[in-house]
Automatic annotation (TrEMBL):
GO terms for molecular function: fructose-bisphosphate aldolase activity. InterPro entries: Aldolase_TIM (IPR013785), DeoC/FbaB/LacD_aldolase (IPR002915), DeoC/FbaB_aldolase (IPR050456), FbaB-like (IPR041720). GO terms for biological process: glycolytic process. Keywords: Lyase, Schiff base. Belongs to the DeoC/FbaB aldolase family. FbaB subfamily. The keyword Metal-binding does not apply. It comes from Hufsiella arboris. CDD domains: DhnA. Its EC number is 4.1.2.13. Pfam families: DeoC. This is fructose-bisphosphate aldolase.
Length: 352
């Protein structure tokens, strides 16, 4: 997809997104994606040589290989949203081999999915695309519905099936967050010992984060702090939803905040909000990948490209996009993944 195609997809938002200059957190303060990102950031860290090799395996695979950017296909929705609801639009993905094939054909850096999906196809594909095993899930079969991330397998099992990375979710702000922080931090420590990279889904979840019709679970200040907790437990990459609002701490009246968070460090522009999230990832030392969100049909391509532009211009590392790709015909899913990757390959799109 050409740069002109990107402009056309962004429509009346093109100039605002492509010409915006951040006057909040300067781009000069950021550690931004580059071909030598692993060398610049992780060689000087406590990560062992096996972790460095695992990180390099992801950064050097797929269409974005050698750029410092990541395009990851995540398919854990069979558990998180039920298999029937997730795969009814395209039933071929009940078969996990097609999930892996989509990641390969789509030029992804890695495929992120469940123990079962990767284990059943491990010997055929572990050497063909980096595996990222999702360790925990909210199983969604308990009634009444609860939101509780629980472990589905061991770090050792992930290593045995050939994974180069593990992923986990913490529902920061939820009743179970203390347990999840302890479990995931211990799992990440073990994963690093075994030489695997660690990716954290830094989601916030609390019904009381919703006030006056606004859902502050995706507020920049709250998600930014979730990111900061995530890098504290040594996640190498942070996955976060794009912020679409700010001021959650003050609206709900909890935690601690400083007015400069909302004046000097952020504005209401989506790129500035995303940059605040990135600042909380040690100014980009841990890469920020934003999620693609649910599939809405005809607008998926435009929304995905918009998300990629925001993430890239904020200083982020890429997108982790699933439903918008696999809930459509296979060839269309490949094209959508490629369109997102083209944003990161476009030299015309730089830091804001």
């Amino acid at each position: 997809m050409s740069y002109q195609n990107t402009i056309e997809l962004l429509k009346d938002k093109a100039e605002d997104l492509l010409k915006h200059e951040c006057k909040t957190i300067s781009k000069d303060l950021l550690h931004t994606p580059s071909p030598d990102f692993v060398d610049k950031i992780f060689v000087q860290s406590n990560r062992n040589t096996q972790v460095l090799r695992s990180l390099a395996a992801m950064y050097n695979h797929g269409r974005l290989a050698g750029t410092g950017y990541l395009s990851i296909l995540p398919v854990d929705q069979g558990i998180e949203h039920t298999a029937g609801a997730s795969f009814s639009p395209n039933p071929i993905y009940f078969d996990p081999e097609n999930i892996i094939k989509l990641a390969i054909e789509g030029g992804s850096n890695a495929v992120a999915t469940t123990f079962g999906n990767l284990a059943i196809m491990s010997r055929k594909y572990a050497h063909k695309i980096p595996f990222l095993v999702k360790l925990n899930h909210n199983e969604l079969l308990t009634y009444p519905t609860k939101y509780e991330q629980i472990m589905f397998g061991s770090v050792e099992d992930a290593w045995n099936l050939g994974a180069v990375a593990v992923g986990a979710t913490i529902y920061f702000g939820s009743e179970g967050s203390d347990r999840q922080i302890i479990e995931v931090s211990q799992a990440f420590e073990r994963a690093h010992e075994l030489g695997m990279a660690c990716v954290l889904w830094c989601y916030t979840r609390n019904n009381d984060f919703k006030k006056d019709g606004i859902n502050y679970e995706t507020a920049a200040d709250i998600t930014g702090q979730a990111n900061h907790l995530g890098v504290t437990i040594q996640a190498d990459i942070i996955k976060q939803k794009l912020p679409d609002v700010n001021g959650g701490f003050t609206a709900i009246n909890f935690s601690k905040s400083d007015k400069r968070m909302y004046t000097d460090l952020a504005s209401d522009h989506p790129i500035d909000l995303c940059r605040y999230q990135l600042a909380n990832c040690y100014m980009g030392r841990a890469g920020l990948i934003n999620s693609g969100g649910e599939s809405k049909g005809e607008t998926d391509l435009a929304e995905s490209v918009r998300s990629a532009v925001i993430n890239k211009r904020a200083g982020g590392t890429g997108l982790i996009l699933g439903r918008k790709a696999f809930q459509r015909p296979f060839d269309e899913g490949v094209k959508l993944l490629n369109a997102v990757q083209d944003v990161y390959l476009a030299s015309e799109i730089g830091l804001a």
